[in-house]
Amino acid sequence: MTQRDIIAAIATAPGRGGIGVVRISGRDLLRFVSDLVSKPLQARRAVLTAFRDSAGESIDEGIALFFPAPHSYTGEDVIELQGHGGPVVMRQLLQRCVELGARLARPGEFTERAYLNGRMDLAQAEGVADLIEASTALAARAALRSLQGNFSELIQELASKIVALRTLLEATLDFPEEEVEFLTAGRAADQLTAIREQLERVIASTRQGSLLREGIQAVLIGEPNVGKSSLLNRLAGEDVAIVTDVPGTTRDAVREQIDIDGLPVHIIDTAGLRETDDAVERIGISRT
Hints:
Layout: E1 7-10, E2 17-26, H1 29-32, E3 47-52, E4 58-67, E5 77-85, H2 87-99, E6 103-104, H3 109-116, H4 122-133, H5 137-147, H6 150-174, H7 182-185, H8 188-214, E7 216-220, H9 228-236, E8 254-260, E9 263-269, H10 279-287
Parallel strand pairs: 1-6, 7-9
Antiparallel strand pairs: 1-2, 2-5, 3-4, 4-5, 8-9
Helix pairs in contact: 4-5, 6-8
């Protein structure tokens, strides 16, 4: 279900860098970019070319890569323009794509098209987002396994076993007069037990994946000057919270994320709990 419109977006992170990428997806892209690149493009070949504006002047010089449908990320024609990663250059390239008839892609639309065109399933599409948002190496590896289809294969295997078990059940209902007991002959009870055990393992792995993705929140709560901020600084490995002997130094919550054996832990230091006449400190205690 290839989309008719052409979409374009800057695919690299905002800011300045040595390289920036503008990605384009749609139909008949070779014709679309004929006025933008100075050299003809070949499938999956890096071409050094100038990127031209409407007057034929060079915007930048870089690499153009063409991935013809259906063997591309989105399943449509895809072109990546790799130029110098300055914000001005990237905006000019993107604006040129819009002038030629493309529209700005919505957030996540390239992956959405990959899903709609059958290049990945929903679990893999979610794996893309998890991989981008991963805050630890362990979380990144887990997201990559999902993106590569490991989780989808487990679900498909479970679905196949359930269908096979359902077949035995329906055979027993449809042919009750037969001497063969399909459920007994097919060891249906053993199959059901195995399916249940495998399903429990899958659910446990999803809980682990959720922890790796979202992390654990740990709130440091106690009276003033018992070492909450010092503990936060020790765990973070730097002075992220102010530490003094004056009670009530910490008023706003101080948040820091650390990595413990690949698990993201969000630690929150809070105002010390006590009775006080200080109006500002009371607000901090109320938030705690």
